[in-house]
């Protein structure tokens, strides 16, 4: 599909008037969507073009419920897991699991009206589409081969040929075995299962931190984890790379050598320059300002590591509030706030002092950063915000950092330093933490399981959904999931 994704909801249906004359009827045996293309008109159907959003809708409402198909060369294809809509660059559906012969592939699925759409949209020249493992089209063409930018070929499925013709068209499509879990399980059992999965995710995250580190290494691990969380899904890896290029030790050393006023400017220039995101590094026009000139001048005088390229960052379809430059500025304020006491001791003290009642308020406040000066009105150099935000780092993202970074880190530290109070405090906070804002994985899983946010009423249960998705769904392990039985 083209770069503008058109993802209809799983519950949307086609009608004759909406489909431009396609003959549809409801109440068929094809699947829960109640939609069937009349086979008597299959030849007429194949001669007419559907929009890509229509093809995507057919994939969502019907095809994903039929696991076994054939590719354009007649080879068997099994869609083990259909993935979820992709809101970034690359294939239309991400995290899919597809078996071709004896090989299981993990990646994206791309959908077009015609096979030729792959080349027409330039996907064969775009490295972002090298993650695609299956090409789906409604109509065939002269060539049904799909070749990636890296030279590899992937299977192509022609829906009109594969699904709506032949004996397979009459077979019922079975949904994922976890669908409708709330109709089979009572709320208490479902909640307990999600909480157990949430605990597993917390422990799993704690095990990712290095064993027996000294204070410098431990502080760097926490710093890197916070940086990763600031990157959201799209920029996690670039933020981790930046944390390694500008380690915490450097930031703390520069604090000891600078005045407080100079430190924040030096730190911002160092971080932005090392990230490759200064205007001169991106050849940005119309970004001139006193602040910009100051950053460029400071960067030019600093001994610094090789810079990243701005191309390392995902700047496509990123909300202004989440733009990497703005998050880097937020980080600089956190470093200024805690470097005097020491990064690691400061956060240890924050956990220790968290009250028993509603601890999330104090923990989130520790990460919140208000906007000021140039960044109160801009999200990037030369790019203003239509509705100025009062914060660089708000309560919602702060909560995500607490749950995904701070608490797992403290659990890890308790085991390495034999400070049992840290373990108990981290677990107690985690198990009473209120529900955070929703994310795309949670929304997808709620839809997949056919449950509501009433069943996912805490951060612990939200983490459980994410754990199930990442450890089971995206690995094609339906048979290992208790929701499937």
Chain-wise SSE layout:
Layout (H helix, E strand, L loop, with lengths): L23 E2 L10 E2 L4 H6 L4 H10 L6 E3 L5 E6 L2 E2 L7 E8 L2 E12 L2 H4 L11 E8 L6 E2 L5 E2 L1 E3 H4 L18 H4 L2 H20 L8 H16 L5 H10 L2 H9 L3 H16 L3 H4 L7 H12 L22 H15 L4 H11 L5 H7 L3 E2 L7 E3 L2 E2 L6 E3 L1 H23 L2 H13 L7 H10 L9 H13 L14
Parallel strand pairs: 7-8, 8-11
Antiparallel strand pairs: 1-2, 3-4, 4-6, 5-6, 6-7, 9-10, 12-15, 13-14
What does this structure look like?
There is one protein chain. This protein has helices at residues 42-47, 52-61, 117-120, 159-162, 181-184, 187-206, 215-230, 236-245, 248-256, 260-275, 279-282, 290-301, 324-338, 343-353, 359-365, 395-417, 420-432, 440-449, 459-471; strands spanning 24-25, 36-37, 68-70, 76-81, 84-85, 93-100, 103-114, 132-139, 146-147, 153-154, 156-158, 369-370, 378-380, 383-384, 391-393. It has two domains: 24-170, no CATH class; 183-484, no CATH class. Helices cover 43% and strands 12% of the residues. Mean pLDDT is 85; it is low at 6-47 and 166-172. The strands form five sheets. Strands 3, 4, 5, 6, 7, 8 and 11 form a seven-stranded mixed β-sheet that branches. The chain has a two-stranded antiparallel sheet with strand order 1-2. Strands 9-10 form a two-stranded antiparallel ribbon. With 485 residues, the protein is of the alpha+beta class.
């Amino acid at each position: 599909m083209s770069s503008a994704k058109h993802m209809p909801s799983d519950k949307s249906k086609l009608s004759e008037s909406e489909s431009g004359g396609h003959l549809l009827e409801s109440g068929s045996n094809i699947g829960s969507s109640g939609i069937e293309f009349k086979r008597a008109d299959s030849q007429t159907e194949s001669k007419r073009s559907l929009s890509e959003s229509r093809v995507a809708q057919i994939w969502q409402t019907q095809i994903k419920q039929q696991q076994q198909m054939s590719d354009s060369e007649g080879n068997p294809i099994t869609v083990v897991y259909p993935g979820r809509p992709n809101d970034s660059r690359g294939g239309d559906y991400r995290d899919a699991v597809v078996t071709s012969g004896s090989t299981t592939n993990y990646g994206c699925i791309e959908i077009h009206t015609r096979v030729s759409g792959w080349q027409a949209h330039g996907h064969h020249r775009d490295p972002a589409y090298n993650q695609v493992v299956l090409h789906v089209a409604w109509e065939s063409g002269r060539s049904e081969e799909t070749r990636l930018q890296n030279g590899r070929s992937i299977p192509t499925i022609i829906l009109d040929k594969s699904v709506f013709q032949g004996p397979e068209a009459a077979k019922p499509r079975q949904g994922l075995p976890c669908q409708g879990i709330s109709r089979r399980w009572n709320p208490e059992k479902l909640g307990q299962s999600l909480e157990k999965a949430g605990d597993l995710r917390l422990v799993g995250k704690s095990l990712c931190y290095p064993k027996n580190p000294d204070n410098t290494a431990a502080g760097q691990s926490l710093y890197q984890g916070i940086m990763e969380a600031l990157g959201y899904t799209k920029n996690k890896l670039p933020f981790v790379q930046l944390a390694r290029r500008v380690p915490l030790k450097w930031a703390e050393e520069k604090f000891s050598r600078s005045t407080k006023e100079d430190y924040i400017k030096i730190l911002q220039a160092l971080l932005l320059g090392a990230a490759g995101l200064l205007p001169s590094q991106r050849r940005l026009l119309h970004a001139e300002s006193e602040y910009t000139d100051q950053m460029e001048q400071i960067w030019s005088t600093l001994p610094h590591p090789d810079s990243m390229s701005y191309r390392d960052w995902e700047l496509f379809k990123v909300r202004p509030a989440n733009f990497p430059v703005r998050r880097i500025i937020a980080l600089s304020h956190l470093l200024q706030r805690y470097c005097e006491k020491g990064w690691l001791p400061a956060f240890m003290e924050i956990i220790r002092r968290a009250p028993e009642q509603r601890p999330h308020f104090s923990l989130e406040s520790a990460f919140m950063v208000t906007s000021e000066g140039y960044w109160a009105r801009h999200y990037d150099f030369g790019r203003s915000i239509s509705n100025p935000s009062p914060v660089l780092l708000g309560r919602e993202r702060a909560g995500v950092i607490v749950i995904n970074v701070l608490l797992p880190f403290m659990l890890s530290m308790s085991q390495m330093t034999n400070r049992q109070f840290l373990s108990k405090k981290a677990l107690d906070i985690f198990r009473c933490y209120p529900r955070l804002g929703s994310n795309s994985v949670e929304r997808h899983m709620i839809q997949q399981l056919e449950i509501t946010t009433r069943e996912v009423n805490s951060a612990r249960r939200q983490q459980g959904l994410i754990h199930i998705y990442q450890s089971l769904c995206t690995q094609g392990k339906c048979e290992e999931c208790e929701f499937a039985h």
